[in-house]
Amino acid sequence: MRLARTAAVVAASVAIVTMSGCVILPPPLPTQLRQPQQPPAQPSQTSGGSQVEVQPVEPDEPITTEDETDADTGDLYAGSRGETVDGYFPDAALDLVLEATRGTARVAPGIAMMEHEDGDELLAGTSHTTDESLLLTTVGRLVLEADGAEYTCSGTVINSDSGLVVVTAAHCVFDDDTRDYYDRITFEPGYERGEAPFGTWEAEDWWVPSQYLEANERWLDGADDDGWMGFDFGFIRFAPQDGATLEDAVGGQGISFTAETNGVVIAGYPGNDDFDAEVLRYCADEELNYGAGGDANYGADCAMGDGASGSGFVSNLDPATGAGHITAVYSNGGDTGAYGPPLGVTAYNGLRSLDD
């Protein structure tokens, strides 16, 4: 039986849910709630089922069962083996970490703050300025446009050669409804309650893994195939403004391609339940699991859902500066938790192809 999944993509405004599950927004905004992906009802343990018909997609390089990277940024696949019990693969570890442009990551097990799963506002009352936490400036709201409708996701500016790259989920770049890329994507770093303190940036190019597109196509055609979950990540490059880059404006968060993690802080703009995608919210989990439901995802306790897709799983966070290592991105979840694929060699190759 094919498991349902919920995309963490939310409408950009208050909406009325119809019997069909679609959402009609009040005028004048031509937006509607979008749920292109419905996450599995993730159990707390791996399924071990044998009925799944798997056509596995594999990363650009073979995965390893032991930590072979010199960079020590946490536990490889959270201490689990990479291939899941249902035969799905994650990205393969690469010995490469791009450090944050401001502050220094705190590499240690766990998290240097209290655990939190309710999705409260992150650093409420603190201004979103470059002399505050890197999380408050590099994390922003993505607005996606297709066929006259608008939807939102979350993304984070990372340290990159061009200074113009945001990491997010693949399904925040590729539209399941049209089976094509979104018509237009804009990014508002530091967004809060209608204000974009660092401006609105226009996407000029993007990348998602071919592994994601292949497996997702089978899933959309009705196959019992969750291979897309291991590769639901992507990068977007934005056009500079007056000769300045995103990193010039807000800084760049660190990103790790080692497929390793300690505890994480997840920061984004959820719109599910009582949330409205208007403020930056967070969850913090001391220790991740891996492979729940037989899928190649990290899992964390977190109530954030629609709209949080693309949020970075920030490991090794220094609470004083907001610097850390994005080790995965939010792919699917909600009431059952937050789930996202580890980043590795496939992700890095994609970044290089976009950023060179």
Q: Can you tag this structure with a few keywords?
A:
single chain, 356 residues, mainly beta, Thrombin, subunit H, 6-stranded antiparallel β-barrel, 6-stranded mixed beta sheet, 9% helix, disordered N terminus, Peptidase_S1_PA, signal, Peptidase_S1_PA_chymotrypsin, Glutamyl_endopeptidase, V8-like Glu-specific endopeptidase
What would your notes on this structure say?
The protein has one domain (about 10-40, about 70-355): Thrombin, subunit H, CATH 2.40.10.120. The protein starts with 9 loop residues before the first strand and ends with a helix. A hairpin with a 4-residue loop joins strand 9 and strand 10 (about 180). A six-stranded antiparallel barrel has the order 6-7-8-13-12-11. A six-stranded mixed beta sheet has the order 5-14-21-20-16-17, with no helix packed on it. Helices cover about 10% and strands about 25% of the residues. It has helices at about 135-140, 210-220, 245-250, 345-355, and strands at about 10, 15, 25, 75, 95-100, 140-145, 150-155, 165-170, 175, 180, 185-190, 200-205, 235-240, 255, 260, 265-270, 280-285, 290, 300, 310-320, 325-330, 330-335, 335-340. The longest helix has 11 residues, at about 210-220. It has four helices and 23 strands. The chain has about 350 residues and is mostly beta strands.
Structural class: mainly beta
Could you name the CATH class? Mainly Beta
Strand order of the largest sheet: 6-7-8-13-12-11
Q: How many beta strands in the DSSP annotation?
A: 23
Evaluate the radius of gyration.
18 Å
At CATH level 2, the architecture is: Beta Barrel
Percent helix: under 10%
Enter the CATH topology name: Thrombin, subunit H
Element order, helices and strands? EEEEEHEEEEEEEHEHEEEEEEEEEEH
* Domains, number: 1
Report the portion of residues in β strands: 25-35%
N-to-C span: 42 Å
Task: List low-pLDDT spans.
Answer: 1-8, 11-52
Principal-axis shape: globular
Largest sheet, strands/sense/barrel: 6 strands, antiparallel, barrel
Number of H/I helices: 4
